[in-house]
Structures are given as structure tokens and as C-alpha cells.
Amino acid sequence: MMQASLTTLIFIYLGGFLSLVFGNWILWNASRLRSERKSLQHRLRCSLCSFEFEDPTPDTLPRCPRCGSLNERTPLGRL
User: Are 60 and 70 in contact (CB under 8 A)?
Assistant: First the structure.
């Protein structure tokens, strides 16, 4: 039979618990970043009036719904 002290068992228990919490945090953060990137995929900013709008059409030069100017499809970066 293997003998272990109480401090060793507590250390093993806390280490396992903290690694489980850290692993769940990593998975949750990766999922959040993936959904954020997917939501920003079709978002554009007008170069004339700085209005942000979504345009899921495959047009290369979409029109701004506010001022009507043509805009290039440049990816909108995160803050």
C-alpha cells in the first residue's frame, strides 16, 4: 500500500482542481474569440462617414447605407 501525507494529498487535489479550471478557461476563451471573429467577418466601416455596417453580399465595393459611397472590403480590426 502506498503511503502519502495529508499535505501531499491536498497538493495533488489543488493542483488537479486548478488545472481543470485553467483548461476550462482556455476552452471558453478560444470559443469566445472564434465567435467574435465570426461576427466581425462581414462588418465594414465607411471611409467617408465612418459608419459601421454589415454587408454579407459578395460585392467587392459595397455601398454605405448612410451616405451611399463605395467602400473597399478591408477587414475591421479588433480594439
Answer: no
Q: Per residue in 25-64, pLDDT tens?
A: 999 999 999 998 888 888 889 989 989 999 888 888 999 9
Only one residue has cell 462588418, namely 43
Q: In sequence order, which residues have a C-beta less than 8 Å from that of residue 15 and are 6 or more positions away?
A: none
**d(C-alpha 24, C-alpha 32), whole Å:** 12
Q: Is the pTM of this model over 0.70?
A: no
CB burial of residue 53 (10 Å; 0-12, 13-18, 19+): middle
| Dist. CA 72–CA 79, nearest whole Å | 20
